[in-house]
Amino acid sequence: MDAYLNIKRFVLLTLLLILTACNGRNSQQPNTADIRINAAADSTQVGQTELIITLTDNAGNPISDAAISVKGDMNHAGMVPVLADATGGEDGVYKMPFEWTMGGDWVVTVDVVLADGRTASQQFDYTIAN
């Protein structure tokens, strides 16, 4: 009988822990900024280019107090990612040097951290010519 009670207690405790953990995840507030991200490259040829990231809020007002990190990945494994950072954009426009190291399909991920700590992220697809 004691073994049955111990198993029952264990099952109830496990269910309680699972329900508590699930409830905690659902109650967390997302830390996503209500911003729009636009990314453009001066060139889509292999080699050096300049990435131009434009940040605006949902009303179209520029956001100039953000820190931006960019990661460029080829769409296949085995390539080293290209990284770039920018801060202090003027009128919501951030410019940074970037290098397309190889022709092909790329995914560029733009991560934004606003001055108040809110974050946003967006991916952009590019096809780079040799």
Describe this protein's structure.
- The protein is α+β, with helices and mostly antiparallel strands and 130 residues long.
- The chain folds into 2 domains: 1-30; 35-128, Immunoglobulin-like, CATH 2.60.40.1080.
- 20% of the residues lie in helices and 46% in strands.
- The chain has 1 helix and 7 strands.
- It has one helix at residues 2-27, and strands at 35-41, 47-57, 67-74, 82-87, 93-100, 104-113, 119-128.
- A 4-stranded antiparallel β-sheet has the order 4-3-6-7, with no helix packed on it. The chain has a 3-stranded antiparallel β-sheet with strand order 1-2-5, with no helix packed on it.
- Strand 1 and strand 2 form a beta hairpin.
- The longest helix has 26 residues, at 2-27.
CATH topology of the largest domain: Immunoglobulin-like
Strand residue content: over 45%
Q: Determine Rg (CA atoms, Å).
A: 22 Å
Number of strands: 7
Produce the secondary structure layout:
Layout: H1 2-27, E1 35-41, E2 47-57, E3 67-74, E4 82-87, E5 93-100, E6 104-113, E7 119-128
Antiparallel strand pairs: 1-2, 2-5, 3-4, 3-6, 6-7
List keywords for this structure.
single chain; 130 residues; alpha+beta; Immunoglobulin-like; 2 domains; four-stranded antiparallel beta sheet; 1 helix
